[in-house]
Amino acid sequence: MTTLRLGTRRSRLATTQSQWVADQLEAAGHEVELVEITTEGDVSAQALTAIGGTGVFASAIRHALLDGRIDVAVHSLKDLPTAPEPGLTIAAVPVREDSRDVLVARDGLTLGELPQGSVVGTGSPRRAAQLAALGLGLEIRPIRGNVDTRIGFVTEGLLDAVVLARAGLSRLGRLGDATEVIDPIQVLPAPGQGALAVECRSDRADVLDAVASLDDADTRVAVTAERALLRALEAGCTAPVGALAEVVEGDDGLELSLRAFAGSDDGTIELRRSLVGPYTEPEALGARLAQILLDDGAADIEGTTTTATSRSEHVS
Ligand SMILES: NCc1[nH]cc(CCC(=O)O)c1CC(=O)O
Asked: Any idea where the Porphobilinogen deaminase C-terminal domain is (predicted)?
C-alpha cells in the first residue's frame, strides 16, 4: 500500500506515542508520514472537565480519520471514550506500558512521608477520590496542563506533589522525576492506562491489515475488561472509577483478574471490588464487576459530572 498518514496531536506525549507506533509500522515494512492535528483541548486554557473531558482530544483526530485526511491515529486508550465510534475501529492495542500511577514529590518524598496538609495536584477525580480515601490528610488541588507542566508545579515549589501516569513519564524520558510508584492497592489506575489504541476506519481493510501485527492479545483482553466495566458504570453512576485487569495463571489455563474502585470525590465513600473470570470473556467480567459495584452503592455516589453531552468522557 501507499504511505500511511498517521495523525497526531502536537503535545510531546502524543508525538512520542505516535512516533513509537510509526517506528513499529516502519519496522514492519510500511512507509509512514506524521500529520499534526490541533484539537480544542490543546488550545483551551479552561479546565478539561468544563470543555467536555478528555474526549475533546479524541474527537478532532477521529474527524480526520472519518474525513480521510489521515489513515491511522494513535490515542492513549484511557483518553478514548468507551462508546464505539461508528465507522471506526481499534485496529491494534500494542503491548502495554506499566499501568500504575506515580508520585512526583518535593525532596524525594513518598505518599507515606508527605506531612499532613501537603498539597497534591491532580486534575483527575479518580486520583483525587483515592488520594482522599487514603486518610493521610492531603489537600487535593485541581490542576491541568501537560506532563512537563505538571512536574514543573513541584520543581518550582508551587505544589508538594503531583500524581501522574508512570507510562507518560516513561515515554517522555522523565521517570527519574518519580519519587514513588504508587501501589494499585492504594490508587488503581484509569481503565486503559498505559495502553495505546491504534484506530482506523473500519472499511480500510488495507490499513487494518498493516496495523494488525502491533496488537498484543493480553493487553487487548485486559483493557477490554477494564473498559467494559467503565462503560457499564457510566450508564449508572458518575463516580470516579479506577480499574486494573491482569492476566493470571489459573488451574485450567489463563484467567483474567479484575480489580475496581468507585468512590466519592472527597474520599468518604470508597468501594473496592474484584473478580476473576475466563480470559476469553473480558466483556462479561467487566460488566459483572460493574454490576456488583452498582448494587453495592456506586449508583448512589455523587461523582464529578462533566457536561450533559460528555457523560462518557472522563478526565482520568
Ligand atoms: N490524562 C492525560 C494522559 N493521558 C495519557 C497519559 C499518560 C499515558 C497513559 O496513561 O497511557 C496522561 C498523563 C497522565 O495521566 O499522567
From this structure: 222-294
Q: What is the helix (H) or strand (E) element at residue 283, kind and residue range?
A: helix 282-295
Q: Does some domain include residue 309?
A: no
Rounded to whole angstroms, how far apart are CA atoms 102 and 169?
9
Q: Say if residues 77 and 93 touch (Cβ distance below 8 Å).
A: yes
Q: Look up the pTM and report it.
A: 0.92
Q: Residue 109 sits in which domain range?
A: 101-181
Which residues' Cβ are closer than 6 Å to ligand 1? 54, 76, 78-79, 147, 164-165, 167-168, 193-194, 316
What distance in angstroms lies between residue 101's CA and the mean position of ligand 1's atoms?
A: 9
Label residue 46 by pLDDT band (50, 70, 90): low
For ligand 1, atom 6, the nearest C-alpha belongs to 168
160 is catalytic: no
Question: How are strands ordered across the β-sheet holding 72-76?
Answer: 32-36, 4-8, 72-76, 196-201, 88-92
Q: Is residue 187 part of a domain?
A: no
Spatial strand order in the sheet of 253-263: 241-250, 253-263, 270-278
Count of CB atoms situated within 10 Å of the CB of 316: 23
